[in-house]
Specification:
Blueprint (H helix, E strand, L loop, with lengths): L12 E5 L14 E5 L5 E6 L8 E5 L5 E5 L4 E5 L5 E3 L8 E6 L5 E5 L2 E2 L4 H4 L16 E2 L2 E4 L5 E5 L15 E4 L5 E5 L5 E6 L4 E8 L14 E4 L5 E4 L3 E5 L6 E6 L5 E6 L6 E6 L4 E6 L5 E6 L6 E6 L2
Antiparallel strand pairs: 1-2, 1-26, 2-3, 4-5, 5-6, 6-7, 8-9, 9-12, 10-11, 12-13, 14-15, 15-16, 16-17, 18-19, 19-20, 20-21, 22-23, 23-24, 24-25
Length: 314
């Protein structure tokens, strides 16, 4: 069933689900994208070259090319509708994990990791090794980089990061406002929903943030976000999805999800009332009602702790 995305049609779902088949490294394995049709039947399985670790950040650019990232191998891939898979090296060897495509044809690339060390209590539980960027002693800088379409560097944005539970996570997920002036982002598992003023190149006050002591249960965590059709911000918090005012930061609504570990969100085509979400722990991909959190459809990929990218074909 291995093939490219040439058979993709509107409504199909593409899921980055790396085959974690390295017993010595729980983030390592063969890069793979599962292609489901509109009825969530498996349509194709795409094997990716050049990757060695978790593949994620799936996103279509305006021309319909699918971008995918392996931040631990410093790899960016483009999947074309004619079946070609192209490696993009012109952006440099940095731990990019996702992209945004701006109206002028330029691209923002975000670094997944930051710093040069991992909290000892987290490092003791990790079964993978983060590489330093070539010629450095740093995993990454946790910054967002603005490139022209041809790979020419326009700007480096010195985005602040939280670090997440391990202390090394950078800009792991982000969203760009409709006017392309504001970046909202998080360091996954961290307690800050951060903002950066792209127009004036300056850090903004957090949209939301939480400080201990936390109430009983899992501490507040941010995982993913996306702007909705009315300019609202949908924020995924692991076990719930929140509707947030993008200016005041007020939570306007909250819907619980089944279990914990929901880490990716992709608004479904249509009026903006439904979204695709994926659970990192279980590998489940589900379509939900954004107001209630109820599941409308779901598929089990069988890729526990491996689903790191999600894209609907438009």
């Amino acid at each position: 069933m291995t093939q490219g995305i040439q058979s993709a049609v509107t409504g199909d779902i593409l899921v980055a689900a790396t085959q974690l088949n390295n017993s010595a490294d729980d983030h390592a394995g063969e890069g793979r994208i599962l292609h489901f049709d509109t009825q969530l039947q498996l349509k194709a399985e795409i094997t990716l070259p050049h990757t060695t670790h978790l593949v994620g950040g799936l996103k279509f650019d305006p021309s319909g090319v699918l971008w995918a990232f392996d931040s631990q191998e410093f790899v960016i891939l483009n999947l074309h509708h004619d079946g070609r898979i192209e490696r993009r090296d012109e952006f440099g060897a940095r731990p990019y994990s996702h992209a945004h495509f701006l109206s002028d044809g330029s691209v923002l690339l975000a670094e997944h990791v930051v710093g040069d060390h991992i909290k000892p209590e987290i490092a003791a539980r990790m079964h993978t090794e983060l590489p330093f960027m070539p010629g450095t002693r740093r995993f990454g800088d946790g910054h967002v980089w603005h490139f022209a379409a041809d790979g020419r560097l326009i700007k480096e944005y010195a985005t602040a990061t939280h670090g997440g539970m391990g202390g090394f996570l950078g800009v792991t997920m982000s969203a760009v406002s409709a006017d392309e002036k504001t970046l909202v982002y998080c360091s996954e598992t961290g307690s800050r929903l951060m903002r950066y003023d792209l127009a004036n190149d300056t850090q903004l006050p957090d949209l939301q943030s939480f400080a201990p002591p936390f109430p009983p249960g899992p501490p507040p965590m941010f995982f993913a976000m996306q702007y909705g059709t009315q300019g609202e911000l949908w924020v995924l918090r692991g076990g719930s999805v929140h509707r947030v005012d993008p200016v005041s930061g007020d939570t306007l609504g909250e819907a619980p999800l089944e279990g914990f570990g929901w880490a990716l969100i992709e608004l479904a085509a249509g009026p903006g009332t439904e979204a695709w979400v994926s659970n990192f722990f279980t590998g489940e991909v589900a379509k939900i009602d954004l107001q209630t959190g109820a599941k409308l459809a779901s598929v089990q990929t069988g890729a526990a702790k491996a689903v790191a990218g999600l894209a609907e074909v438009r």
